[in-house]
Structure formats: structure tokens, C-alpha cells
Amino acid sequence: MSILSMTLKEMSTALKDKKLSSKELVSFYSDRIQKYDGDLQAFLHINENALKQAEEIDARRAKGENLPALAGIPIALKDLIVTDDMPTTCSSRILKNFRAPYNATVTELLRKEGMVVLGKLSMDEFAMGSSNETSYYKQTRNPWDLSRVPGGSSGGSAASVAAGLTPVSLGSDTGGSIRQPASLCGIVGLKPTYGTVSRFGLIAFASSLDQIGTFSRSAEDGAMVLSAIAGHDPKDSTSAPVAKKDYTLDLTGYVKGLKIGIPTEFFAEGLDPVVKARVEAGIAKLRELGCEPVEISMPHTDYAVSVYYIIATAEASSNLARFDGVKYGYRAESENLYDMYTATRSEGFGAEVKRRIMLGTYVLSAGYYDAYYIKAQKVRTLIKQDFEKAFEKVDAIICPTSPSTAFKFGEKSSNPLEMYLSDIYTISLNLYGGCGLSVPCGFDGKGLPVGMQILGKYFEEGKIMNIAHAFQQASGVSTDVPEGFKE
Amino acid sequence: MSITDKDVRHIAKLARLKVDDAEVEKLADELGSILGYIKKLEELDVAGVEPTSHVLDLYSVTRADEARPSLGTERALANAPEAEHGHFKVPRVIE
After folding, report:
1. Most exposed residue of A24, A239, A316, B35, measured as fewest CB within 10 angstroms of its CB?
2. How many CB atoms are located within 10 Å of the residue B82 CB?
3. What's this model's pTM, rounded to 2 decimal places?
4. pLDDT tens-digit series, residues B34-82
5. Which residue from A317, A343, A416 is facing B30, i.e. has the nearest CB?
């Protein structure tokens, strides 16, 4: 069996049975990175010690040590999760060569699990973007069509898994930054419930929305990684008191009788007809499996993008105040402190980041705070109530992930508002705080993947991943690597 | 929603960003168009609705007041653009 088509479970078993070594696995993916990343442009930093770390795992196993399920399996991280042995740049000039003096909690948990980090992945600068085009360093391409974007902001995390340069990866989702690129690259992307995975060591964008999650070929692979990284962390005061659990136990494949809500507002104007048709076919498949579709209404959906771009930018303007050239990162030389701050920030941040800091500063400024920020927080309550009401009637909500398949570089980057609207189906969930995922449900006429979104209540990751799992088993929609990455 | 050049310069100052004249006009247009879209919220009556600042029911999360190891000066200063005598060094503040 080719390593490329192995599930994490199969890798785990083969490693345990000593039919495969971690060294072989890591070499396999390192070779693929060597061969393909010139085209894909997904990796910002490569872990030079990956092979050595794999050998250490192999040696421990050879000694008879009982290792965790994912020990020896490679993974890669979005470049906003701090690691003390590699740089963390957030794809920004202001963090060029920044090497964190500590590890994120997820980095520590992966290390404890024995997973081998292959490297760090490109993203939109400070996770602000939906196409990877705002990166200061490199624009990751979509493996299905290199002239198209992989989505964003976790574009590198999605493209690297889709192209088979790593079996799994981590990303972060503030307004859809896991689900949208997963959809555009044809893989599974999970955003857990807010607070499920520690944010300690995740460089903050919008603290009330940010959440770390997984990219994988299958829901089952994602569930395995989630089991390793989820759980309460005393270092993150917004971390939820969730107990450690094995999420794969929820993947029974049995979904009969589950009520799935189909919100009319998510199938309205602006949705590509092909995407609509594929998602509807996905819903039909779920019906065949015994799910019961229920039409629901989420009347405040239309306001989500507005609320998001007030709250997220307000929080970002505050979070990004720390980048001032004093303690770390880029510094522009100046005569006095004020000029040093402004020159550092103006040269260090890219256009989109500056635009959002400006917008966030504006909505928080004297005279506008109530009209924008407080108003947005109140409408956030209404959006949250839409979800709460829906979940009184249904087990999960099904809708498209993105209004279109992957678009071309430059197609939306000249108009910020148009780019913001590409997150129209993913943003509401972050405002509510529940869990959601994107699962591939087919391809369009150009051979580009389409994703179906499954949204769930707080802490019901197991349930939505089980629906995705059942769907993947039954639908047969391929998550094989695209032509051109198969050798 | 129109944003004036003066607004842009004021916000830039608050955000400690430097914008040159060419950027001011462009930013005024872009921010104006985003704020124009956001204006949509005015349609909604939110009288009596409580604002949501955070989705989880977590209040006053504190940990035990126990001493624990910290980064230490050397690691904390490792990324400093300039450091001296165990401190971060910045350009002159008082003229």
C-alpha cells in the first residue's frame, strides 16, 4: 500500500506492528515537499530535525515503549502556532525571523503525542484574508489548479494536505479560515467549538473568535488529531472545561434519525449554481443514510459579515498593538519613540492588516463605539439566538462552505469587500461559537472541489464528524491528491 | 458612509500607523465602502438585546497564586531588536 493513500489509523497500526518506521514516513513526506513545494509554495519553514525526531520515536518503539496512537506520524502547522525550534512569522514582515521563546500548548501536546512536525505553513498575513494573497512571503497555490487560490487564511495548511505533502495539518479559524480553504482544496477541515483547543501560543487575531482546528483527508483522521489536541488548558483562561476524550469513538457511521437543518438563507442569491447542486446532492445522500432534512430559517444571516468585520477588526486592532518594534520582531530605526512605533508598524504590516487595524480602531474610537461596536455585539446575540433556536429542532445544520469554488489569483484582491463576502457562509458559526466542518461533496465542471458545511452545537464535534464520516463512507467523493501530485 | 481624509489621518494616528497622502485617499474610499456595507446593521432594532462579548459561560477565571518558573531575562530578551543591561532598549522618549 502506498503511504499516500494510508489513513492515520493505518499508519498508526503499521508503526505499531513495525511494518513501517517513522523515519520512512517522514522521509516520504520530506521528499514530496522537496519535489512539489516549489509549485505549491505551502511551506515557510522546514523542520531540519524532523528525520532525527522520527528516528528517536523509532528507537523508543524498538525499546518496547508503549507510545500514543499518533507517535511517529508527521504533521505540519500554520505559521501562527508558536514553536521554539522554528521561526513563527504569521506570514508577516513584522515577525520576520521571530523565534518564540516557548511552545504553544498544541505544539507541546503534539510533541507529547510523538507527532513529528514537518514544518510551518504559509497563510494570509495575521490570518487576515481568504486567499493567501496577503502573505508577505509566499502565495500558496491551489493544487487542483495552480493559477487559483487555495483559500485562506489557512491556505498552506489546506493545500499541503490536499497535495499530499503532509498527512494532516493544523490551522486556525476566526471567520472560516479552516473550512473555506478545506472546501477550496477538497479536504476535510474542522473548526472545533470555541475553547475546545487551547489558544495559548496561537498568535491572536480576534480573541473571541479564534480557534485552532484540523485539516485531513478524512473525518476519522481529523478526529484522531483532535483527540490529541483538545482539552482544558490552565494557560488559556478562555479554554473550556472539556475533558479529554477519544473523538473517534463517536464515528459509528450510524446517522439514522438525525435531523439536519437546511437554512434557506444559505441557499439564496450569490451562491454558484454548481456549488448549490453539489451540496443538495450531498443532502440527498444524507437523506438516503437516514438523516431527516428539516427546512429552517436563520433570519439574521445577512448581518453576519457586518458584525464580523466590526468585532474581528476591533479585537485585531487591540491584539496587534503589541507589534511595536520594542520586544521582538521588525524595528524601523527612528530618532524618537513615537516615530519608531509608526515607522515599524507601517513598514512591518501589509496593506490588508493595516486596513483592518484602521477599521477596528475606527469602530472603537470615541463617538463610534456604541454605534458600531456595541451594536455589533448586540446583533451577535441575535445571530447566536438563531443558532440556539435552530438547534432546538435539529442535530446539525448543513449548508455550502463557500459561495464558489477556488477563484483565480487577483480576482478578488483588488476589492476588500468582495473578498470579505467570500466568507459569507462560514462567519456566522464563529459568532455563535459552535463547531463546524467542511467535507468534500464533489467537483465542479472545471474539476475544482466543492465543500459541504456541517455545523453543530457547542461541544458536539463528535456528532458532526460522525455525519461527515458516514457521508464520506457512503458518497465515495475522492480525497485523493490531484493529478500532478501523484508520482 | 463617507470617511474624510481627516478621519483617516486621525485613525492612523490612534493606531500608530503612518499613511502618506496617496494612501489617505485610497483608505478613505476603502473604509468608506466597508462602512457603507456595515451600515446594514442600522435596519435592526436591538433595543433590549444584551451584547455578546464572549460565547462561553466562563467568569473570573483565575489560577492559584503560586510562583512558577518564568521565561527568564535571557530568553525574554532573545528577540529584542535592541537590549542593554537586561532591559529592552528604545529610542529617546524625552527630548
Report:
1. A24
2. 14
3. 0.97
4. 999 999 999 999 999 999 999 988 888 888 899 999 999 999 999 999 9
5. A416
